[in-house]
Each structure stands twice: as structure tokens, then as C-alpha cells.
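User: Is it possible to get a 3D structure for a protein together with its bound compound? The compound here is N-carbamoyl-L-aspartate. I've pasted both below.
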Amino acid sequence: MRHFISLDQLTVEDMYGILESAEDFRLGHTPIQQQIFAGNLFFEPSTRTKMSFVVAQKKLGMETLDFHSNSSSVLKGESLYDTARTFEAIGANLLVVRHESDTWYEEINANINIPIINGGAGKAEHPTQCMLDLLTIYQEFGKIEGLNVAIAGDILHSRVAKSNAHALKRLGANVFFCAAPDFQDHTLEFPYITIDEATEMCDVVMLLRIQHERHDGVKVMNHYLEEYGLTKEREANMKPNAIIMHPAPINRGVEIDTDLVECERSRIFKQMENGVYVRMAIMTKLLHDWGIIHEDAVKKRDTISFKRISG
Ligand code: NCD
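Assistant: Yes, that's possible. Here is the predicted structure of the complex:
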């Protein structure tokens, strides 16, 4: 794999390979005995994605090159391409990029000769978040095929919704959307159900924040929680083993009742922990594929085998 931009580039087998590798990393590993510089180019705010990349890099023994777009030459008009090219020139071995453009990678991926990982592209894709969500679901149910998964919230403006819906469908899950009319995206072929239906029939209820930063004006949504969110009453109707997920940041009391954020069904903090292992797996895969590190530069348990979809 050249760059990790979209899950569409990955076969189902590749996806399972990354999940197995992430699970191996969870069980322990040795760091890379080689100097590797990783540049984290975040042009949009980030807490979890950026920090879990940093933790993943440090666990692997890498040097992290921090970058703050608001104190960089971007303020002098430098483009994403020239910023990435600069990192490559000064010795970065790998880049993680998050940018508000849906297609930023088209500007840079052909001409940058180090691996690039998509840490979030506008409202289009968030493939590393998707991989950590898949790992969390697999850990819970021991499979993905046949599960009912509802993705609820601002589907139209969410990159997480798109990456997850497509990947879950490819892995055999039944994916449903729940959204207020203004937040529905009818270019995507997934059925819409109500949040009441979702909580009654789904194994996974994945909530999303309203993506105000991608709206034209601020939408004031009165009674959003009661109409579209996960209330305690709805949680009480969930199936016995059903789980609650959310990529975070969470707007407590808007898309989810604050008491549910850390309730027994919630896997929200588990998702964050899994983000570290998945990102270790993706970075080592790319470094191997490019020949930057040797096949056995990282020792991990390498014993985990996940059940594939049938058929
Ligand atoms: C998400 C994102 O940035 O798309 N957050 C994340 O990476 N964990 C979701 C969001 O911002 O609502």
C-alpha cells in the first residue's frame, strides 16, 4: 500500500490484517530499533486522533515532528503540498494529514515520496477512525457480519459516518442511518430508520456530533436529544448486549444523555484506546510496504486470527 487514504483501497483481507495486527499490538510489542520521523500535519482541530497517533508513534519508538498550522508558514500562504514536501525534505519518513478539504490528498499523494495517512478529510473520509471502530465492534461480538449497526446524527457532514457505513457494509453488517431531515444524505444508499427503531433492533448504536463547523450558519436545534438523540429511555430499550459508540468529541446532552457517556454499554473510551493500536498497525504496515523498516523490525505476538465473513 502506498498511502492510507481511503478504505476503498483496501481489500476485506487487508482490513482484517490491520485489525489482527492492532490486536497483536494491544498484547505487547518491541519498539522499532531505527530512527523514524513522523510528521503530524493537522490543519483542523484534533484531540483523540492526533494524540493517539503521537502515543502510537512513541510506543513504536518514533520521533514525532509536531506541527501547528496557526504558527507555521501556512499563515504566510504556504500550501498543503509545499508543507508536506518540506517535511519530506527535512527527513520525515511518514506523514499524517488532517485537512478540511474532502479531497486534499489529490493535491499531494502522487508527488510525495513518503507514506501519507489520512487523519481526516473534510466531510468525506476518516479511515483510521473507521478501523478503530471496527476493532471495537469485533472485540465485542467476535464478528462483524450480520450485526445491525445504526449510525445516528449529522450524517450529511460527517466523515466518520461515510467511512464506517461503507466498510461495515463490505464486512457484512446491516447498516442503518438515523438523522434529522437536514442531516440526511440521500446520495448514500443506506436505509433511514428512527432512533427508536435503532435502539430497539441494533447491536451497535453509533452516535455522531452535530458538525457545526461544516454548516453554513449555526443551527439551533431545540429538543434535539428528545427527538433524535440517545435518551435514557431509549437506552433502556436497547438489546441486552447492544453497545453505544461515539467517535467523540461528545456534546453531552445534545446527541447523548450525559449519564450514558460512561454507562455500562458505552465503548466510547475503549474506542479511544483502540485508536492507539490501530494506528500502530497502520503505520508499521506502510513502513514495511515502503521498505523503510524491515519485516521483523517490530516484534509483536502475531498470534491473533479474526473470523472472516462467510461466502
Ligand atoms: C471525529 C472527526 O474529527 O471527524 N472525531 C475524531 O476524529 N475522533 C468526529 C467529530 O469531530 O465529530
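The first helix runs from residue 12 to 26. The radius of gyration is 19 Å.
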